[in-house]
## 1
Amino acid sequence: MDILPHWEQGTPGVLCVAGPHAIPVSTAVRGSDSRLVFALGGGRETLARLREDPRAAFCLLGAGSAFTAYGRAAVVRDELNGAPHVAAVALEVERVQDHLAGSRTEVLDGARWRWTAEETRADERRIVAELRELAAQ
C-alpha cells in the first residue's frame, strides 16, 4: 500500500524520529494520499530532532486501520494562529506499510483518551481546524 489510508480524527498515533525518539500525536490530519500534518508543542525535543534529520515514521492503530507512514517531516508553521505555543509539521509520505494487509486480524478500536481541561479541548479544536487548512495546501 503506497496510499495513506483514512482514519477517524483524533485517533492517536506515534511519531518516531531520529534517536530513536517516539512521541504520541493526537492531532494528525490526512492531507492527501501522501501527506499528513500534525501539531507538536513548540518546545518539544522532537522538533529539534526533525530539523537535524527529517526522516520520520508515523504509526497509527485505529478502528479499521493499522499502518506506518514513512517519509520526511518538516515544520510548515512555527506558530499556529490559534495556538502560538504549537508548531505545525507535515510528513511527506514516501512509503506506507499496511499492518493489516493479508492479516487474519482487525483493529476494533484505537486508544481512547481525552483532555482533562476544557481550555485544552478548545485549543485542540482550533489547532485541528488550522491543520486542516495547512493539509489542503
Note: The first strand starts at residue 13 and ends at 17.
## 2
Amino acid sequence: MHPAYVLRGGAKPIPIWFVAADTYPQVCGEIGPAARRFAESARFEPKPGQFLLLPGVDGALSGVLFGLETADKPEKDRFLAGRLPGLLPPGTYRYANAAHEPRLAVLAFALGGYKFTRYRKADAYAAKLELPDGLDGADLSRIAEGVALARDLINTPANDLGPAELEEAARQVAVRHGAMIRTVTGDELLAQDFPLIHAVGRASPRAPRLIDMTFGDAAHPKITLVGKGVCFDTGGLDIKPDSGMRQTGSCSARAWRAKSAANVSSPV
C-alpha cells in the first residue's frame, strides 16, 4: 500500500469537506455551528484551491474545508486535491464528501505528496488519507508508484542518469514484475535497422540503446507503447542572429532542419 494511504479502522480521521459555491451552504449545515461561525469570521470563500483548517476542542483540528469548481463548470481540475498533502498538518484524514471524480481525488492525494529523495532526505508522508470504501487501494498505489518512478527518472540529472542507468532502471522494473527485457546498444542498432536512434546518439560517449520490455500472456491481444527517453539534449546550436532570438516565432524550415541535424543527445 502506498505510504499516503491507510485502511479504515485505525485512528479516527479528520474530515475533509470539498466545497464549491453551489455546495457550500449544504456543507455549512453539516460541519456544525461552531465551525460555521469560524469559517464566517475567517471570511473563507469556497473557491478552487482555497482551504481552511477548522479548530476543535483543546486545540485539535476538527475538519478541513477545501474549495473546488462548481459542478456546472465544463473544465475542472480533477487533481486539485493533490495540493492537500502540502497544506495539511500531520494526521490521518478522510474525504467527508465526494469530489468531482472521487477516484482521481484519492489518487491525487498520493501524487501530491511526492518528494525527490535521491540526494537528500525528506520527511515521510505526514498527512495520510483513509481509503474510501469501494476503491481499489492496491491499484491506486501501483499508479502512484509508477508516477513516482517516472518523476524520479526525470528529476535525476544527466550526469547520474545516462542510457545505461535508464536501462538498469528498466531492468529493475522488469525483474520486479516478471517481464522479459532486451536491449539493442550502439552499432548493433544499425545491424537491427534502428538507424535514427543510432544517428541521434552516436556523437555521445554514452552509447544509445533501444530497450524492449515484454509482459503478459502471449496469447492475449498485443498492446505496444513506444516512448522516447532523452537522457540529455543540448538543444541544438544557436544559428539565429541576435535579432531573431528576440522573436518568439518559429524558425524557417531550413534553419529547423539544420538545428535538428546539429543536435547532440544521448537518447534511449
Note: Residues 137-155 form the longest helix (19 residues).
## 3
Amino acid sequence: MLQDLRFGFRQLRRNPGFSLLAVLCLTLGIGATTSVFSWIEGILLRPFQLVVNQDRMVAITGTDRNGRTEVSWPDLQDLRKNSTLVESFIAEHIGGATLSIGERAERAVGSVVSSNYFDALGIHPILGRTLSRARTPDVMPIR
C-alpha cells in the first residue's frame, strides 16, 4: 500500500494542472453535496418548529364599512378584557412603505405588532430583547 501511495503522489507531481483540477472538482463536489444534504435535513427531516401549537390558535377578523377586514383597536382591547377562555390576543397589521434613495425607489413590506406579539408566539431572542410594554404601550390612536 505504501508503494501505491508513493506512485500516486509521483503521478500527481508529474501533472500539476491535472492535480489542481482534480482537487478543485473534489472540493466543489463535496461542498455542493454537503450544502444540499444540510438543506434537505433542515427543511424536510428536521424543520423549524414554532413553540406555539397551531391547532390552538384562532384568527379574528372583522369587516368595516369600507370592506376592509380589520379588527379595531378598541375591539381588541374589549376582547382582551372580557375573554376568559383565550390565553392572549395579539395584533398585527401588515403594511408597506416606499423607500427611496436618490433616484431609486423600492417597496418594502413590514408589520406593526402589539407588544405581546413575540411572547404569545413563544419566540425568545438569542441576543437583545423583544418589545416591552414599558417602552411600547398597547395604546393606539383611534382614527
Note: Confidence is low (pLDDT under 50) at residues 139-143.
